[in-house]
Amino acid sequence: MIPPTFDYVRPASVEEAVRGLAEGGEEAKVLAGGQSLLPLLRLRLAFPELVVDVGRVAELRGVREDGDTLVIGALTTHHDVLRDPLVRRYAGLLAAATATVADPAVRHRGTLGGSLAHADPAGDLPAVALALDAELVAAGPGGRRTVPARDFFVDYLQSALAPDELLVEIRVPKAEGWGFHYEKFHRVAQAWAVVGVAALVRRDDGRVAEARIGLTNMGATPLRAAAAEAALAGAGDGQAVARAAEAAAEGTRPTRDTSASPEYREHLARVLTRRAVLAAAGMG
Amino acid sequence: MTSTTEREVGRARPRKEDAHLITGQTNWTDNIQAGGLLYMAFLRSPLAHARIERIDVAPALQRPGVVAAFTGADLADGLGSMPCVWPVTEDIVMPAHPPVAADEVRYAGDPVAVVVARDRYAAADALEAIEVDYEPLPPVLDLEGALAEDAPLVHADKGTNRCYVWPLRTGEEFDAVRERAEVTLKRRYHQQRLIANAMEPRAVAVTPVAASGEYTLYSSTQVPHIARLLLAGVTGIPENKLRVVAPDVGGGFGSKLQVYGEEAVALDVARRLGRPVKWTESRSEGYLATHQGRGMIQDVEIAATREGRLLGLKVDLLADMGAYLMLITPGTPLLGAFMYPGIYKMDSYEFTCTGVFTTRTPTDAYRGAGRPEATFAIERIMDDLAAELGVDPMELRRRNWIRHEEFPYTTVAGLTYDSGHYEAATDRALALFGYDELRAEQRKRAEGQDAVRLGIGVSTYTEMCGLAPSRVLRDLRYAAGGWEAASIRMLPTGKVEVVTGTSPHGQGHVTSWSQIAADVLGVPFEDVEVVHGDTRAAPQGMDTYGSRSLVVGGSAVHHAAVKVVEKARKVAAHLLEASEQDLDFADGVFSVKGSPEARRTIQEVAFATFTSHDLPEGLEPTINAEHLLDPDTFSYPHGTHLCAVEVDTETGQVRIRSYVCVDDVGRVVNPMIVEGQVHGGLAQGIAQALYEEAVYDDEGNLVSGTMADYLVPSAADLPDFVTDRTQTPATSNPLGVKGVGEAGTIASTPAVVNAVVDALRPLGVGDVRMPCTPERIWQAVREARS
Amino acid sequence: MTHISVKVDGTTYEDEVEPRLLLVHYLRDRLGLTGTPVGCDTSNCGACTVDLDGESVKSCAVLAVQADGGEVTTVQGLARDGEWTALQRAFHERHALQCGYCTPGMIMAARDLLRDNPRPTPEEVRQGLEGNLCRCTGYQNIVRAVLAASGQEVTA
Q1: Using CA atoms, how far apart are residues C65 and A68, in angstroms rounded to an integer?
Q2: DSSP B285
Q3: Where's the FAD-binding PCMH-type domain (chain A) (predicted)?
Q4: Mean pLDDT in consecutive groups of 10 residues from the start of chain A, 284 residues
Q5: Model confidence, pTM
Q6: Cβ of A192 and B708 within 8 Å?
Q7: What are the chain C neighbours of B21 within 8 Å (beta carbons)?
Q8: Do A72 and A109 fall within a single domain?
Q9: CB contact under 8 A, C127 and A189
Q10: CB B624 within 8 A of CB B488
Q11: Which CATH number is correct for C2-77, 3.30.360.20, 3.30.1490.480, 3.50.50.60, 3.10.20.30?
């Protein structure tokens, strides 16, 4: 229950934050909303020497439009994301999934950027970022770079961010007119997803023209269900969707824990993908 | 004129306890501050079983803010073995249980050292500096494997992992009954290990007065009186120098019906340092260090006729003691021993319980303690038998239960149930539930292709409360009695103090005891205060557990109040210059028969007694009274619980669609409190059925080791309950009450599991192990289909 | 040590704190505001819920330094001149607490819920309180109390 000691800085700007991270090196940790970091500290599962609290960096908050792209500041809280009119209009999937993250008090503090940078495959939002084909913008000593979501999640709790990089914004292509659904399967309301399926579906003439499926907790990183996506193209009815969803677990490597075996997770991925796609496509 | 006091008993009084709790003006043990207070933290074994080869606390002493650190060996001269007060058989194996392990650790979480520091942060940091070398020993985890000849031993010096074998044989020989039975069923059920999760983690604080050798121990405990007695023994502090206080206590559910090593260590450290000390467990620490509940394999065999008349029941239990015997570890499974036949008539009953040591956190009481296991086994196998016979599960129960005109009824297990009306409770429950309609819907849906199946679960339970007649406890080899104490102090201003030996931690005794006393004394509810949970203020008591408090402690309050009235009558008669026989007493007023203007309120009598200016010759100047009540027998609440679930056969997900229960807990003192007890009990019983389990891996590590992994359900996970009551008063106490603290927990677990199995039975599924997780249900369906 | 200035229940406090100090420990151990309890170490139970700058937060999941310059309301700051809030009254009248340990957090979470959604359905109350665990009540009377405090008719 007691965090270990650490040094603490509270930069006022991105530049200051990056400088702080550079000085702290491997032993520095970014504190955004703290809803992932503080539990790790309390259980003494993390021992950073320096905590860089970016909570006061105002430029990291908020949602804006940039042409066909929605730009969400990394420090925007879950609470703000799921109420944001732009997010609801152009990235409804993100709002829907964010509503299932933890509980209201945690959503008041937890941030989109923090959730993604934490790179927990059991978190709901990494799979959503994948399905949305989001891009993540990192600021480092050498300036900014953009990383596609598919390259961002490197391994379990490991992102593509360098130790001296800070995630500053999430760029989401507007997906107006796409159907969406986040199907979260968990044992109690507060529990992590056993499996989650983020589905984004573009319809054309009553058929699935294009589907993008992100999978939560089906491996060391969030995953796209590529085989199912391919099989879904052209699906015109529930049976076709069901057949395509059978491929949802291909290429996944789910773990075993107290909630599920890998085999059961694969089964759930198939069932939930079918349900999520049907709901997203309005075929349910 | 006398104003008529509204009868308090039976009223839904909002609680007196609430004001400080809803405003944050609380007195939890962790709130306690004292000059020079030091904080303790325990280093615990990361291994399930190991020899301590070397331990060095010296590096911890170098850390800032650290005042002292002790190993088990350091404390051995100050502390004895932690006591178990229920040696259930003559030849029970009772290993030593040092509060801090010195040579060997026997479960992950066994404490090996304690540090004492100026604040909780420094104490936590210092733990990391302690050096320990462990030599791993083989863990002992499987209950059957632990009994094998060549099994590694939890306590090598004892030569066996078998703690005890406790048999009970009543009625006809079961073998003979099995012979003539047309139908027999054998089932194995598993009671998973559970963690109580009282919302307040355990905490203890000690303030010593070194000069006089006096100690006050504050503890988040259900049992301050028992703790005082036993901690005096463990520490050698004279009992009359030790005061134990249970301040606000945030729930217990059995987990604080315990005397813990940390309490003993806190006393000893305070004695060694002459400084006040405090310790509060973190939740994850508590998962290892606070005793767990259940943990049992139940082999159950039932014999019946083809018509569904029960002939006999045979029960073989393997009960997981864990690594050590704590306060009542061995006796806990036996609290159910007499309850397996439930509400049914039969000719034969055989019961054997074998206690087994394992290298896991010790088990002990958890809400219901023995009785939920018994009810689960009988109610599950009744459903299985109904399926086997092809009759409706409720119909099978009707054919076998004790009819209301048969009370009092002595069961095959030898208990005499004094009162009850199973038909009435059941009829009411069926009507509220819409049983027939739901059965019709179930049939219809099973015919279709719906992946979501409807299941209906039944549980008609009884339990024994009112622990306990001391002579029965003697026969069961329990080391103490089962009485309860109450005293009533009539203050000069007319205010009343009720002193109770019960120790509430959420049950609302202050309110209910006020209602009881107000009625007998005829004083306003508001004029009564209830004193509890402090061995100095309430010196006698047996504390709170086992749904005993109202039945024994509330009845003691009633008796004490009656004594007050009788003592006051003497004084009133003198003041009114009448004979005692000529006095009426109603609504708090003594009046002379035939001349109602000649009157004295009991509160006036209290003042007159205080001044003592005009008392009868030789009369002791007090109308205060005390009563110690040793009950003659138990009480037997009962009820009918019905649960409808929807089971998604594709994912295994269960949703409770409706839950109806009709409980008969006898007369009700405060219906709002009673209903609340039922709600909470249901939530815990449902949680056992569907969500919760202390899961250990093959090395003996607790893998459901935090509240993020051990699934305590929230409001979003539970349904609205429909609750109702029937009332057949208990005949064994003056209030007619039966006890309600555990009813919901006892009844609901089998109702839910029966509903899950009922949904899946048409698919060929006959059982799902608890908790009925989605994956287990999915697996069961898959296996049945293949 | 880091300097912080925090307003808690109407009083401003200036303190030097270790950066690692949790807000809940700051409240309890430094300010003596022990009305806010600790129930877990994983942010699951919600017993420590307080208001920070107008939003419910779990005070075990906030560092005291993060609250610097902020305004905290705890359960101890709700009643005005001894007058309970509608939620406190409803919790009392509907028997929405037993041991009372979850109650401060439950009331603070319910207060946030009603601020967001003044007339919630029973289901919305249940979902809105998903981050607050109670082991005594089975939640039923808590749900009733929150509905009652919202001014809605509550049957049974």
Answers
A1: 39
A2: H
A3: 1-177
A4: 96 96 93 96 95 97 97 98 97 97 97 97 98 98 97 97 97 93 96 97 94 98 98 95 97 94 98 98 86
A5: 0.97
A6: yes
A7: 97, 100, 103
A8: yes
A9: yes
A10: yes
A11: 3.10.20.30
